[in-house]
Design a protein that fits this description.
Elements (H helix, E strand, L loop, with lengths): L17 H16 L27 E8 L4 H8 L5 H15 L3 E11 L4 H18 L2 E9 L9 E12 L13 E6 L8 H11 L6 E2 L2 E5 H5 L7 H10 L2 E6 L4 H5 L8 E6 L7 H10 L3 H7 L4 E7 L4 H10 L4 E9 L2 E5 L4
Parallel strand pairs: 2-3, 9-12
Antiparallel strand pairs: 1-4, 2-4, 5-10, 5-11, 6-7, 8-10, 9-11
Length: 350
């Protein structure tokens, strides 16, 4: 018999720790289980997640899918070690898009990639994902953890999310958008998850570090303030749809109001937005002043304080506003739909 090779390499020697991956799955199972909703037909651990549309109450459903990431906001999370909120960002970027189509988010899957798996770091991220799912009525039914030595520097990671929702056939949004419809703006929770390459450039030129006192809020650090998670609009949007009179939603992400509002407008119609209708949040005032960012640039890069816009029939504004406020949203009437093309602004942002 040939002598056994005592120096044989293992996968762990190559930098991939399967046992650590299994330990992570065991740790996050309770978080995933807390998101269970009607329709979930399997738990974590299978080759795929199962979901029963009939058990979820749908009769003639149309599926809607969305995928997204968190962008360079992750750089701040990695550099500060404050990774607990980026999972919420990941969910929000997907499910907030789904409701714009009129769909109810049903389930979510995540992809987490890193050079060397840190179980605590990964678990905190996934627990944030579960928190976002739970707050959106969306089940976390699966995901992938990829440990890829040599692909990411120590401590770095990347995230992607995938969500599927459904609506009954014939209920898709936007629909019926017409001149005279009212624009209701829902407040954002800061920068959300877009424009962070510019944010990081502004912070770099300011000479401040992530651990320094936040210039617009001395109760926290600059890094923590900029890591405020993206607001989840799902339950409020579904309540607004139920109230009746909603013709469309625009999730204000990359491209700001300038680029996202036109996505819900039919040919021949534009939007007039009154910039004086709401106060520009302190974080945007600081970014604008520190970076010399003009109003037009602000409006096509950031949400500028409005994270979602609801297009509502004029005679349903009060009812829809009440539904949105009852679901915890801050609602401001910010403009109207009118003849024309694109977005026109009046007043001053500030």
């Amino acid at each position: 018999m040939a002598e056994q090779n005592k120096n044989g390499l293992t996968y762990a020697d190559a930098g991939v720790d399967i046992d650590a991956g299994n330990a992570l799955v065991d740790r996050i199972k309770p978080a995933a289980a807390s998101t269970t909703r009607a329709g979930v037909a399997s738990g974590l651990g299978g080759f795929g997640g199962l979901f029963d549309l009939k058990a979820a109450g749908f009769v003639d459903p149309v599926l809607v899918a969305a995928t997204d990431g968190v962008g360079t906001k992750l750089r701040i999370a990695i550099d500060t070690g404050n990774v607990d909120g980026v999972g919420i960002d990941l969910v929000a970027m997907c499910v907030n898009d789904l409701v714009c189509q009129g769909a109810e988010p049903l389930f979510f899957l995540d992809y987490f990639a890193t050079g060397k798996l840190d179980i605590d770091q990964a678990a905190r991220i996934v627990e944030g994902i579960a928190a976002g799912c739970k707050a959106s009525g969306c089940a976390l039914i699966g995901g992938e953890t990829a440990e890829m030595p040599g692909m990411y520097p120590a401590g770095d990671f990347d995230l992607a999310g995938f969500s599927v929702g459904a609506m009954e056939r014939g209920t898709a949004l936007p629909t019926g958008v017409g001149a005279g419809d009212v624009l209701l703006g829902l407040a954002s929770d800061g920068v959300h998850s877009n424009g962070y390459s510019l944010v990081r450039r502004v912070v770099e030129t300011s000479g401040l570090g992530w651990g320094d006192t936040c210039p617009w809020d001395d109760s926290t650090t600059l890094g923590a303030a900029l890591l405020t998670p993206t607001r989840l609009y799902v339950k409020a949007a579904l309540a607004a749809i139920k109230a009746g009179g909603v013709h469309g939603f625009a999730h204000i992400t990359g491209g700001g109001l300038t680029e996202n509002l036109p996505r819900v407008l039919p040919d021949g119609l534009g939007a007039r937005v009154e910039l004086d209708a709401w106060a520009l949040p302190d974080v945007f005032q600081w970014l604008g002043a520190q970076g010399g960012i003009t109003g037009p640039e602000m409006l096509k890069t950031f949400n500028a304080g409005i994270g979602m816009v609801v297009v509502v029939a004029a005679d349903r504004v009060d009812a829809v506003s009440a539904a949105l406020e009852g679901a915890g949203q801050d609602v401001t009437r910010i403009g109207v739909i009118e003849e024309g093309e694109g977005v026109r602004y009046s007043g001053q942002l500030g």
